Amino acid sequence: xxxxxxxxxxxxxxxxxxxxxxxxxxxxxxxxxxxxxxxxxxxxxxxxxxxxxxxxxxxxxxxxxxxxxxxxxxxxxxxxxxxxxxxxxxxxxxxxxxxxxxxxxxxxxxxxxxxxxxxxxxxxxxxxxxxxxxxxxxxxxxxxxxxxxxxxxxxxxxxxxxxxxxxxxxxxxxxxxxxxxxxxxxxxxxxxxxxxxxxxxxxxxxxxxxxxxxxxxxxxxxxxxxxxxxxxxxxxxxxxxxxxxxxxxxxxxxxxxxxxxxxxxxxxxxxxxxxxxxxxxxxxxxxxxxxxxxxxxxxxxxxxxxx
Length: 307
Ligand SMILES: Nc1ncnc2c1ncn2[C@@H]1O[C@H](COP(=O)(O)OS(=O)(=O)O)[C@@H](OP(=O)(O)O)[C@H]1O
Hints:
The chain has 307 residues and is an alpha/beta fold. It has helices at residues 2-7, 15-29, 33-36, 67-74, 98-104, 127-134, 147-161, 168-172, 186-189, 193-201, 214-219, 221-231, 279-300, and strands spanning 51-52, 57-61, 80-82, 107-108, 113-117, 139-144, 209-213, 243-246, 251-254. It has one domain: P-loop containing nucleotide triphosphate hydrolases (Rossmann fold). 39% of the residues lie in helices and 12% in strands. A 5-stranded parallel β-sheet has the order 3-5-2-6-7. The longest helix has 22 residues, at 279-300. The protein starts with a helix and ends in a 7-residue tail after the last helix. Its EC number is 2.8.2.-.
């Protein structure tokens, strides 16, 4: 069961995850199921303690917002246990049932929070109802990023897998027109945050959602992690002592714990250079998003400063 899930991992995961998943798969192949659950903590004893619980908190979006960074930062908290791969339960695998989902979760002790992240949940119409059916108490975290940059990041990822892709400019406008934005293109649609949020607010009160700024997660990771820990009811364990700015990568990375050789920056697929896109095209896209951004600021009570 676990192997099946891990084969459906975040297809755009970074090398850190791939290394992690490789270890887990190897250990499962060796019949070390319980031990495998703990490779992320470098614990070499069998772990049959604790129970598998449904996640009390889920990072539901957004794709290319900085969700992997947030999850990996959270995982250094001793009271957080999370699935490394993206389970995609509430969008792709819902018919497998809740027990299948719970089985994917790591074991937790009392007081520990179970988490997962699947960024596509935010834009999945059925996801709010389904999460609500699991537990109306679920805390929902959304990492949001300037939708223009997010669209370019999304495009960059698709381009890396399919070098023959048409240009961004060709995809962003409707065929017949140079000015009309093609909202059927997922790279555009995902960034209409206000629309997607409306679906979630049909089931969850705003207080159950936390909006993390993808920009501030890069410029002030400790500050943003403070908000996240407060929201989750966790002690503020993750602080600026845990981060350093890696000049080569151009992003904050986690400081290495003493004696560990584990890489603490995210992999190559996170923080990729984006292709050049003409400023007029970006401006047009920015104009398109402006009213939706303003609506989103009103709905959340937060100004993300994207204009
Ligand atoms: N610390 C750190 N290190 C590396 N990258 C970071 C970090 N914090 C945020 N980011 C930004 O995360 C972007 C990828 O977002 P996601 O992890 O949500 O992508 S995915 O949806 O899971 O594919 C990724 O987007 P790109 O820059 O376009 O590659 C990064 O800008």
